[in-house]
Write a structure and sequence with these properties.
By secondary structure, the chain is an all-alpha fold. The protein has one domain. It is about 80% helix and about 0% strand. Helix 4 packs across helix 10, helix 7 crosses helix 9 and helix 8 runs antiparallel to helix 16. It is globular, with a radius of gyration of 18 Å.
Length: about 300
């Protein structure tokens, strides 16, 4: 089992299935909870679960390491958890999953701008092909785009850029922290702000004990435990075992999972789904195929 956990392709698939399902779970949770409540519960409860590891880990960290933990937690664990449900009040779950494919592109761009990381030509080609696959899915999809608005779509793009910044910080500044220790620390740091937002949202006064509400609680529980806490531990491990570029290619698989859930939810299937999915898989292959050389690639 230990060797399986260290296998980059195994981690990539598990994370993609978990996070790819999170968009439909967010959609179902929004039937009862507000975007701010969903984001605050995901981060706050994850922090509460992992605090027994996070608090001791934080106490042992130097001020410099603690600073980077706080920053990467904000960009990778806090801000996106609010941006996605807020965006999905107007953007379909399938479209949100498709737009999430922009992460590897931001990793390449930000890696060069902020860290001077040079990537191989084949990696850029793979990122472009993967993005074209996601773009074709988005452009030709017949999902519920009539309610989509540019501003809300931009929130998803902002979330993907946020994930990219977090991935680069982890690789460049927090490489030596064990994944479980890192994940528990960042959730613990942002636990209190999340619970404060949850209290201010009025959830405890407004919650009504109905069958629909309990069903939404179930969706949100799965989203929080599997899609947030556990998936983040695996994602950090993947980043540290490979590179931010390879780890971010998990987002190329997310549209496929999101579309499958969309089909199960009554959405139509077209040939563009197949074409877009094929391009995405080609992009993943090209980015993952590129071997690192010391000091030259991410």
């Amino acid at each position: 089992m230990g060797k399986l956990i260290d296998n980059k392709w195994f981690l990539l698939i598990v994370i993609a299935l978990t996070w790819g399902s999170s968009f439909i779970l967010i959609k179902k949770s929004l039937l009862v909870f507000s975007p701010y409540e969903i984001g605050a519960i995901r981060v706050g409860v994850s922090g509460l679960i992992m605090a027994y590891l996070g608090i001791p880990a934080l106490r042992k960290m130097s001020k410099k390491v603690l600073f980077w933990v706080i920053v990467t937690g904000f960009f990778g664990n806090f801000l996106p958890m609010f941006l996605f449900p807020l965006a999905q009040t107007k953007v379909s779950s399938s479209l949100a999953g498709i737009l999430d494919s922009l992460v590897p592109v931001f990793v390449l761009v930000f890696g060069f701008i902020f860290f001077g990381i040079r990537s191989r030509y084949i990696q850029f080609v793979g990122a472009i092909i993967g993005f074209l696959g996601a773009a074709s899915l988005m452009y030709f999809s017949e999902t519920s785009t009539e309610d989509s608005q540019l501003f809300y779509a931009f929130l998803v793009v902002l979330a993907t850029a946020s994930y990219a910044v977090s991935a680069l910080i982890i690789k460049e500044k927090l490489q030596n922290l064990p994944p479980l220790q890192l994940s528990s620390a960042v959730f613990t740091v942002w636990m209190l702000p999340s619970f404060l937002i949850l209290i201010l949202s009025g959830i405890f006064q407004n919650f009504q004990a109905t069958p629909e509400a309990y069903e939404a609680v179930g969706y949100l529980a799965i989203l929080t435990i599997m899609g947030t806490a556990i998936a983040m531990v695996l994602y950090y491990r993947l980043i540290q075992n490979t590179s931010p570029v390879f780890a971010s290619t998990v987002t190329y698989l997310l549209p496929l999972v999101a579309v499958i859930w969309g089909l199960l939810d009554g959405e139509k299937f077209t040939v563009w789904y197949m074409l877009g999915g094929l391009l995405i898989l080609v992009g993943i292959y090209l980015i993952g195929k590129s071997k690192q050389s010391a000091g030259s690639t991410v």
